[in-house]
Structure formats: C-alpha cells, structure tokens
C-alpha cells in the first residue's frame, strides 16, 4: 500500500523532502502558506555536503550548472588588510566538490519543477497551523520555517523563535560579476560579498541592534553611515545600491528542541533548528535533513522507527552547528579584543569548516 505524507511548507526543506519521499514511493502533498514562489532573494551557499544530498534526489548537477562556483574566499579588515584566506582547493581535495552560490528563487525553481515532474501535489495559499490535526496520513513533515506555528503547537510556547540580538541587511547588485567570497569584519559589524548567477553580486551586512528598528526609506543611508568608509568591495557595492534593493530583517533562532519528532510528526530545517546565518548553512542543513529523513524511511519497517533514527542522526549534528553559528555571530559583533578575534578566525580556517 502506498504510504501518504503531508508536508507543511513548500520552501527548500519542504520541496526537497517531497522529492525524496516520492523517490521512496510515497504519495506526497505539500501545503504552502504563500500563493507562489518568491521572485526575489539573495544567494545561498551550497556546500559539498548539501550537494551530495541533492545528488541523492537527482538535482545536484542542475544546481551546479545554475549556480556560480566560488573560486576564492578571503576575510578582510575594513581598511582592506587581510585577516585570513579560505583555501578553496583544500576544500575540494577533502570533499571532491566546491561551494556553489545560487539564489533562493533559482534553487526553489529547480526543486519546484522537479517535485511537479515527480508527481507531488502542491497546494499553495493553504496554510496548516496544527500538525496534529491534518487527517489520515502516515507522516507529517513540518518545514514551515523559523516562525513555525506547528512547532509551537507541538512543543509549546517555550520553543517559540527568539530574537538573536542582531539585524541583517541583504541585496543584489546587477551587472557586477565576481567569483570571490569576501567577508569584512569590523568592530561589531560585518559586510559580505559573494557571487550570484546571472552576473550579479550578492551582498549582506549585519550588526548588533535592538529588535524592530526598521527605517523605511533610510536603510541605504544607515548602511553608508556604518560601512561607507570601508575599503572595496564594500563601498563599491554601497555606491551601487538603492533603497528598493535593500532587504532588512532581524535574525531569530530557535531554542534547542528536545526532539525533532513527536509521534509520526518530523521537523526539519528552520522549523527544527533555525540558527544565525554566520556559517551560511541554514538551507544546506534543511536539504540534508530532508534527504536523511527519506533515507531512514526507506530502510526501516515503521515510521516511528525511522523518525527515531532521523532524530538520533540529525538533532546532535544541527544543534552543534547552531552553537558554532552562534559563537561566530558573537565573534563578529565583538567591539574589543579584535586581535584575539582575528587570531581565532585564522585558527578556524586551519581547522576547516564543520561538516563539509
């Protein structure tokens, strides 16, 4: 008998789970709150470990072709002097692959098309607030993001997303191609530039700030006030942006969940382990969660046993990454002991990125 799964959320994690479950011969319905795919969004780094997961569902090469391969990477000070270099070739030697940069809309388009071709039923504009009351299905996958209402229903208000203490800006500059990842660390401030497909440059910035301090119409002026004197590529990017191209959002994280499952309900991605973006791994971990979940469902006799194995594999790994991301966020927001901070960053480059 064909087993049935309902996936709450049609983002990266939800669509990846849908494809993976269809390949395992599940009947899959995805219910997404929004009415369509996003048409704007900045670049996501697809690390080798996530690309291997995408390979397992047949879309890895599509992502590599659509994205931009990161050719080099460097961490700088605001005056342009170098703190540390990312050894891109060392990563390739260790993993056999590279990091590829692809916009969120570009990745979602690939996953959406693949899911439709696989026979997934996708219902947009159809939210689900209570994962425990969804009708007669064998499995519920909760992939509805950092502000997951389903998570709060299952685990209670103590597991509501919490403000991290920082805010982030991001955007895209057209006709400014780059192959290099550059991240500039100042006193309590960070600004980054990465490649993006289509000859565009993706940029982002972060700072410690109170919650909800948005200034519509004044964000470019605020960014230039904080970063405008920094060396290229920072001031080069800031000179090229306008107000309509700036997105700003406060950064929220989830408290560590006691389990990624409850009964026949499984949580993945930001619904399970939203972390600060300092490692650039949020989308990657959602993909890995989804493929791991489907893999365990293939191997075990019961859904409950598969979910137990999924929780045992993925919860320690992602919660460790969330702790490392939180530590990285605190490092970038330091205003004192900058030489010590820079030394720690150089040491982390020698150790290599976690879970590549």
From TrEMBL:
What does the UniProt keyword field contain?
FAD, Flavoprotein, Oxidoreductase
UniProt cross-references to Gene3D superfamilies, sorted A to Z: FAD/NAD(P)-binding domain (3.50.50.60)
Q: Can you give the residue ranges of the FAD-binding domain? A: 5-323
Q: Name one GO molecular function term.
A: oxidoreductase activity
Q: Which residues form a coiled coil?
A: none
Looking up InterPro entries in the UniProt record yields: FAD-bd, FAD/NAD-bd_sf
Q: Which cofactor does it need?
A: FAD
Q: Does the keyword Transmembrane apply?
A: no
Q: Does the keyword Flavoprotein apply?
A: yes
PANTHER family given for it?
Answer: PTHR46496, ZEAXANTHIN EPOXIDASE, CHLOROPLASTIC (PTHR46496:SF1)
Query: Would you tell me the protein name for this molecule?
Result: 2-polyprenyl-6-methoxyphenol hydroxylase-like FAD-dependent oxidoreductase
Give the species this sequence originates from. Micromonospora pisi
């Amino acid at each position: 008998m064909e087993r049935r799964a309902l996936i709450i959320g049609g983002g990266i994690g939800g669509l990846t789970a849908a494809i993976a479950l269809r390949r395992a011969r599940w009947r899959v319905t995805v219910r997404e709150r929004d009415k369509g795919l996003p048409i704007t969004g900045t670049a996501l780094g697809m690390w080798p470990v996530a690309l291997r997961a995408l390979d397992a569902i047949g879309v890895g090469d599509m992502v590599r072709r659509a994205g931009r391969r990161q050719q080099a990477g460097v961490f700088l000070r605001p005056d342009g002097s170098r703190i540390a270099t990312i050894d891109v070739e060392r990563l390739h030697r260790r993993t056999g692959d590279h990091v590829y940069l692809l916009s969120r809309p570009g990745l979602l388009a690939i996953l959406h098309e693949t899911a439709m071709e696989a026979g997934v039923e996708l219902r947009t504009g159809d939210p689900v607030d209570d994962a425990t009351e969804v009708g007669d299905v064998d499995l519920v996958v909760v992939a509805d993001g950092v502000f997951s209402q389903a998570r709060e229903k299952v685990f209670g208000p103590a597991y509501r997303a919490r403000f991290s203490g920082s805010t982030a800006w991001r955007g895209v500059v057209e006709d400014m191609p780059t192959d290099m990842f550059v991240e500039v660390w100042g006193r309590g401030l960070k600004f980054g530039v990465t490649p993006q497909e289509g000859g565009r440059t993706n940029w982002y910035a972060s700072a410690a700030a109170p919650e909800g301090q948005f200034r519509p119409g004044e964000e470019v002026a605020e960014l230039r006030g904080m970063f405008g004197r920094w060396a290229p590529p920072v001031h080069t990017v800031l000179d090229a942006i306008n107000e309509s191209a700036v997105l700003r959002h406060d950064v929220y994280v989830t408290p560590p969940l006691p389990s990624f499952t409850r009964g026949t309900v499984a949580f993945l991605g930001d619904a399970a382990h939203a972390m600060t973006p300092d490692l650039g791994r949020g989308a990657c971990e959602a993909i890995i969660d989804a493929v791991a979940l489907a893999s365990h469902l293939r191997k075990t006799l019961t859904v409950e046993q598969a979910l137990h194995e999924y929780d045992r594999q993925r919860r320690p790994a992602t919660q460790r990454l969330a702790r490392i991301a939180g530590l990285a966020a605190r490092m970038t927001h330091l205003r004192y002991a900058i030489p010590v901070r820079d030394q720690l960053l150089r040491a982390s480059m020698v150790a290599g990125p976690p879970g590549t």
